[in-house]
Amino acid sequence: MTHAISTADFAPDTAAIAAVIIGVTAFAVAQGLTYPLISLVLEHRSVPQSLIGFNAGCFAAGLGTATFAVGALTRLVRGDRLIVGGLVGCALSLSVFASSDNFWVWCVARFSLGVCVSLIFMLSEAWLNTACPDRLRGRISGLYGAGMCGGFAAGPLAIPLFGTKNGFAFALLAVYVACVAFLTVILTRKARTQPEQAASGALFSFVRRAPLLVGMVAAFAIADIAAISAMPVYFVRLGYSESFAAISVTILALPTALAQPLVGWFLDKTSRSGVALASALIAGLSFIAIPFLESQAAILIAFGIMGTASFSLYTCALTILGERFAGEALVAGSAAFALAYAIGSAAGSSTVGAVMDIYSPAAGPMTAGSVVLAFAVFYGLSLLRSRARSSS
């Protein structure tokens, strides 16, 4: 069964799409480096896993805080300028990691990074869906996902190159993000479209209208945060090197980036809800399989499959959002996605970190996989109920 095209056809706004993809790629490089690097640095300093999870939770708190401010901000400042401001804020936050060793200062910087990243996320997603027609929505969402995953893959490569004992990797990343902000300014001047403003109260209205989409992003967030934050520590505790732990995040992201355009093709040509269900099932089963694998090659293959499937949930949610909603509902939906990601990542980082401390390292991936499988079951049952109602 194929989806129904719900919006008029038009030429895509290539400048806007390029600005969005380049900006989100820069954010992804930052997140791909900071999540494993901060975790490994704090682990090296003998910080308890619970506090490492708290630090990651500060990032999630920043994500959540920004969702409640985006409506007022878009009424005061143009959306494309807010994206540039978010990139500049990311660069400044990263410079703090390079210049300070204080754990609590890092928590504040992580919170600030979360606020800035959330603005980039929400406005980029809304702008992307405004700038492309529905006939290309899945494939453009796939390119967006590929840029994001490519950034996740590239970020951890700085760890083997520059190590974890100084702030050079953070400083280099701050300069890179600042350069991307400048390039984004140039591209936005050529764009024909702008991100929409968000109406007051639209966020919670969207959650009531599309709870399954919000739940899909929350499931992705739990899987994502477990993969890039807790799993590097999981590998170190099992006796693998820090380099292997960092490279595993790259292996997680690289096939994910390459696969997203193909996922986008399936979303445009087949059932979008079917692709989402298959992604959730594969992601959950891959997580659960990892503790039972012994060879490094098998672990990395499972990691790559898990990353591809879990991120496909986000690509599915973004595509279905643009298919079903338009105008200010896109910003509201993107804000709801950011809030769901914040809640999911906060719950995922704290829960997975806690079960690894209390039980064993293997409890981390088992817990994350079980949560994603639970969503898959609920989503599948919801689809069956919808089909039963439509056929009766």
TrEMBL record:
Q: At the top level of its lineage, which domain of life is listed?
A: Bacteria
Which positions fall inside the Major facilitator superfamily (MFS) profile domain? 11-387
Its keywords, alphabetically, are: Membrane, Transmembrane, Transmembrane helix
Q: Name one GO molecular function term.
A: transmembrane transporter activity
Compartments, record wording:
Membrane
Gene Ontology cellular component annotations, sorted alphabetically? plasma membrane
- Note whether Cell membrane occurs among the keywords: no
Matches recorded under CDD domains: MFS_YcaD_like
Pfam short name (any one): MFS_1
Q: Which SUPFAM superfamilies match?
A: MFS general substrate transporter
How does the entry describe its membrane topology?
Multi-pass membrane protein
Instruction: Give me the segments passing through the membrane.
Output: 15-38, 50-74, 81-97, 103-123, 143-162, 168-189, 210-231, 243-267, 274-293, 299-322, 329-356, 362-384
Protein name as catalogued? MFS transporter
Query: What species does this protein belong to?
Result: Rhizobium grahamii
